[in-house]
Every structure is written in C-alpha cells, then in structure tokens.
C-alpha cells in the first residue's frame, strides 16, 4: 500500500478542511470512466498516463465512485504506478501522495456496520490504498431513513486506531437532509452538488446550512459539460451531444432560452478577455469565490484533452464587483432553478 509522506502545500490555493484533509481547489473527476469504452487494456494504460500527468502538475485530488465503472480499479493501477515509477514535478522535489476521494452509493436496504464496512473494504482493495481520505455518501430514496444508519457507521470507521476512512462527505443531499445528518453525525466535511453560473441553487438555503455546520461544497457541472465555452458563441443549440452535455443543455434551457445563454456567453467572453483568460476560467472562479465552496471538480476527458495549465488560470482570475454585477444582471433574466428543479440533488430523486 502507498504510504503517506509528511503533508505540505505545494500549490498557492490549497484548502485545508482538517489537519489530515487538504487538496487543491481544482480536483480531477473520474466520471468519464463510467463508460464501457474504458474497459480495454490499451485505454486503461492511456488513462493511467493521463492521471500521472494531472498528478505531477499539481492536481493531486481525485474524485471517483464505486459506481463509476472501473474507475476505482484504474485508480488503483495508477497508485501502483507511482510506487514503481515515481514521477518528477517542476512544482517540488517531491509531491504529496494523491488525495483519494470516492463515493459510497448503495442501493437502499440494510445498512448494518457489516454492510457498510464491506463496501468500504471493497473500494480500498480496488483503489490500492490503506484508507480513503474522503468517502462521499449518496442515497437515492429519502423515504428510507436508513441513510442515517449508513452515515453513522461511516463515522464509526473514522474513529478506529487505523481508520479505513479519514473523513466523511455527502453527495447530492438537499439542504434539509444535510441539516438532518449534520445534527446527528459530527464532522461532515463536504457535500458534492451541481453548481455553476447557470445553476446557482447552492447559493440559497444550501449555503446557510453549510455555514451553520462548517460544511464545504465540492462542485461539478461548473462548466456545464463544456457548453460554457467560446466555441458556442453565435452558434445554434448543438446537436449530437454526449449524455453529460445533454443534461447540462437541459439545465440551460430550464434556466432560460438559448438566446439568453448567448447573451451570457458574450458577457463572459468580454470578462475573460479583460482578465486574459477563458470563459471556463471565469465560470470556475465564479463558483470558487463562494465562501462555502472548497473545490471545483474538473471532469477529466481521458485521451482527448487535459487543459491542465488552462484550468490553473481559474485560480488567478480575479473577478471584480463590476464583473459580478453584470453576470448577476443576466442571471436574473432567467428562471430560478430551485423553482423549476427543486433543491440541490432533487434532479436525482
């Protein structure tokens, strides 16, 4: 198993949620590995090489799930590669070990300690690590209250002399359930939710609960599947989209029309040009500047593009009050998504 070196912060914008949990404000998301096309050995080798590139360029936090196809298994192969062939980095003479974040996404049912521990041990075996830095729990059916049992057992696993889990987070829990869980189980570190310039639901009730219990958000969908990009300025609604892009296009159209989205893109392009960055950088920094946001998850496009240097520019983009006022003026022309979709995570239930 990969051993920890003493912790240090090699990057300027590293956030610390606890003495044993810190990571850069941009995380690498392994959602794309849910696709069957990543099962071929050649593709797996290419993915491992990409993971090594992210890692040696300072993107040391990796987000996956037990339901993301072979993601945990491929991550384990990446961890093994670091032991046999440690990469060098221009950032430091040595890098901290990767921050391993996965999700526990069980079908509703018996959530005894035996069931929960077995699921965690299965993830550990696939990931080739001694413990999970942050396990993020998701539950499909709020009417089945055994989600409280699962979180309580995960908390017990953090208290062992040699814990299998260091910290607990949640995934796509709404504000009411987040408050319920936090009132019963201490030290819930994070909640992973969709958050973007388009989908600002986490700025409402969710923010108040996060502040009350010192929970930070890990956000996905911040780039709307790549639709928040210069390439779509002046273009009609795109065709032949990936499932991810279809989802975010629907979110955009639930918020407003394609014409309104074009107005937003033109504004974001002007702001990006002023700050010498990209629309994606502006979109990312809009979310990162929220005090209850810990990090944005950048969905890796393995074998397609990495954009590592471009992504880091998000941290350097300092949006002005004038920039934000202009963005908010266009946001207010659209619908409030909490009135259309519901609270954070409601789209999954």
UniProtKB/TrEMBL annotation:
Pfam family of the protein (one): Aldo_ket_red
Organism: Umbelopsis ramanniana AG
Occurrences of domain NADP-dependent oxidoreductase (ranges): 26-330
Name of the protein in question: NADP-dependent oxidoreductase domain-containing protein
Entry coiled-coil feature ranges: none
């Amino acid at each position: 198993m990969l051993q920890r070196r003493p912790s240090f912060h090699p990057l300027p914008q590293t956030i610390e949620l606890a003495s044993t949990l810190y990571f850069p404000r941009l995380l690498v998301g392994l959602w794309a590995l849910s696709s069957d096309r990543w099962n071929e050995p050649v593709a797996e080798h290419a993915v491992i090489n990409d993971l090594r590139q992210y890692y040696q360029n300072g993107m040391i936090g990796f987000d996956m799930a037990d339901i993301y196809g072979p993601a945990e298994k491929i991550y384990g192969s990446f961890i093994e590669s670091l032991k046999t062939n440690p990469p060098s980095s221009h950032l430091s003479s040595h890098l901290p070990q990767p921050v391993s974040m996965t999700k526990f996404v069980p079908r509703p049912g018996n959530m005894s300690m035996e069931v929960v521990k077995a699921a965690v041990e299965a993830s550990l075996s696939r990931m080739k690590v001694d413990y999970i830095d942050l396990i993020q729990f998701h539950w499909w059916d709020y009417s089945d209250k055994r989600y409280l049992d699962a979180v309580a057992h995960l908390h017990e696993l953090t208290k062992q002399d040699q814990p299998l889990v260091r910290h607990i987070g949640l995934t796509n829990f709404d504000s009411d359930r987040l408050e319920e869980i936090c009132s019963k189980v201490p030290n819930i570190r994070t909640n992973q939710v969709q958050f973007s310039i388009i989908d600002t639901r986490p700025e409402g009730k969710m923010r108040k609960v996060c502040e009350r219990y010192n929970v930070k958000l890990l956000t996905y969908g911040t780039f709307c599947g790549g639709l928040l990009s210069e390439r779509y300025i002046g273009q009609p609604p795109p065709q032949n989209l990936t499932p991810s892009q279809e989802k975010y296009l629907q979110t955009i159209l639930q918020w407003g029309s394609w014409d309104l989205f074009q107005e937003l893109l033109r504004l974001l392009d002007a702001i990006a040009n002023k700050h010498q960055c990209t629309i994606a950088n502006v979109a990312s920094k809009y979310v990162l500047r929220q005090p209850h946001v810990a990090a944005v998850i950048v969905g890796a496009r393995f074998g397609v593009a990495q954009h590592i240097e471009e992504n880091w520019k998000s941290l350097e983009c300092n949006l002005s009050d004038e920039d934000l006022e202009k963005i908010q003026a266009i946001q207010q022309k659209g619908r409030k998504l909490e009135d259309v979709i519901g609270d954070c995570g409601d789209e999954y239930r």
